[in-house]
Design goal:
Blueprint: H1 12-22, E1 29-30, H2 47-58, H3 72-83, H4 88-91, E2 95-101, H5 102-117, E3 122-127, H6 131-139, E4 143-148, E5 150-151, E6 156-157, H7 159-167, E7 174-178, H8 191-204, E8 207-212, H9 221-224, H10 226-234, E9 238-243, E10 255-261, H11 265-280, H12 289-299, H13 301-331, E11 348-350, H14 355-365, E12 367-368, E13 374-376, H15 385-396
Parallel strand pairs: 1-12, 3-4, 3-7, 7-8, 8-9
Antiparallel strand pairs: 2-10, 5-6, 9-10, 11-13
The protein binds 4'-deoxy-4'-aminopyridoxal-5'-phosphate.
């Protein structure tokens, strides 16, 4: 039976990780994955997380099954974070939220749910997008197509192309939108452009699926979530996948959520019941540890304040790295104006380097980015940035 199974290709980004691990270059730098490293090049274990874990260890609890939709205090914290505590959206009961296995799990539960309610819909994702968007929605049975997004010549967003694609999409089309910190390009659309998107989505009766994987890494927690309010105001149905992998530096705990904004409380209750069927038949219910940590931090005022501060520190350090990257590239002899790097936002930069240049960076210098030219700015620090800049300058010569 299995003799005919063909070897599936490695995940393009995680595959690079393996290659990096095996590289013996002592100066190697990994800028390929979407992970935040601190100034010393280490994956941080946030203080707020450590304190929550100590509290939990001091009052140990048995680990029964969680409800299918997860820890109630976690779900309400996600809802409050995404839609605003005390907001009409939350108070009216119109949001159905479940605890998911990371942002990916939220997207997949949402995709399976949408496949049930509108099986013939098409999915549109940005060109380019996080690689797993296409794979995940295809795997859920959808036809996935692109809407224009990145404009390489202008170094920014092809907003006209994007709007035209949405204007001509069939009603019911699912549109995956990066709520902030677009991965991989680092270019977000402006608030006014979001208004245009929201208006078209409403008029064309499209189904927005917002991917909120980097809340707090752009301009701030509230600022990065502002677009959610625009969709609430437009009053149509939409979905939001939340990830805490980055914002809590809890990548391996698989902490995320899916929220579905509905027309009424009654509708939200019915939606929640279907989400639960999707979960029950897939992994039954989520694990306890990561969700308990996040719920404790978000629901305890002093831990919450500490988290916001730690997240702000990560955000600020990334911004400093952007500024330093531009200056150091210049100092390393790069003639081209690289200041666009400081106009990008979040963890990533589309560097504009070609595939050949990225391959040379990897093979000759041990500097690992993605073939598309994407580098993770959050993996730079004052110790590796000079070497990275000198290496980039050499391949640009
Ligand atoms: N969406 C985007 C845009 C991402 O970049 C990522 C993480 N790389 C995810 C979703 C998934 O996040 P998680 O690791 O929490 O599953």
């Amino acid at each position: 039976l299995f003799s005919a199974v063909e070897k599936a290709p490695n995940d393009p980004i995680l595959g690079l990780n393996d290659q990096f691990g095996a590289d013996e270059n002592p100066r190697k730098v990994n800028l390929s994955v979407g992970v935040y490293y601190d100034e010393t090049g280490k994956l941080p274990l946030l203080e707020c997380v450590q304190r929550a874990e100590r509290q939990m260890a001091d009052a140990p609890k048995a680990r029964g099954y969680l409800p299918i939709d997860g820890i109630a205090a976690y779900d309400s914290a996600v809802k409050n974070l995404v839609f605003g505590a005390g907001s009409d959206a939350v108070n009216s009961g119109r949001v159905a939220t479940i605890q998911s296995l990371g942002g990916t799990g939220g997207l997949k539960v949402g995709a399976d749910f949408l496949k049930k309610v509108n099986p013939n819909a098409k999915v549109l994702i940005s060109d380019p997008s996080w690689e797993n968007h296409r794979a995940l929605f295809s795997q859920a049975g959808f036809t996935v197509e692109f809407y224009p997004y990145y404009d390489a010549v202008k170094r920014g967003v092809n907003i006209d192309g994007m709007l035209t694609a949405l204007e001509t999409a069939e009603p019911g089309t699912i549109v995956v939108l990066h709520a902030c910190c677009h991965n991989p390009t680092g270019y977000d659309i402006t608030s006014q452009q979001w208004d245009q998107v929201v208006a078209i989505v409403k008029e064309r009766k499209l189904v927005p699926f917002l991917d909120l994987a980097y809340q707090g890494f752009g301009n701030g927690i509230a600022e990065d979530g502002a677009v959610i309010q625009k969709f609430v105001a437009a009053a149509g149905d939409f979905l939001v996948a939340t990830s805490f992998s980055k914002s809590f530096s809890l990548y391996g705990e698989r902490v995320g959520g899916l929220s579905v904004f509905c027309a009424s409380k009654d509708e939200a209750d019915r939606v929640l019941s279907l989400l639960k069927v999707m979960i029950r038949t897939n992994y039954s219910n989520p694990p306890t540890h990561g969700g308990s940590v996040v719920a404790t931090v978000l629901n305890t005022p002093d831990l919450r304040a500490l988290w916001e501060q730690e997240l702000a520190n990560m955000r600020t350090r990334i911004r400093q790295m952007r500024t330093l990257l531009v200056a150091d590239l210049k100092a390393a002899g790069v003639k081209e104006d690289m200041s666009f790097i400081t106009q990008q936002i979040g963890m990533f930069s589309y560097s504009g380097l070609t595939k050949e240049q990225m391959v040379r960076l990897r093979n000759e210098f041990g500097v690992y980015g993605v073939d598309s030219g994407r580098i993770c700015v959050a993996a730079l620090n004052t110790k590796n940035i000079d070497y990275v800049c000198q290496s980039i300058a050499r391949v640009l010569q």
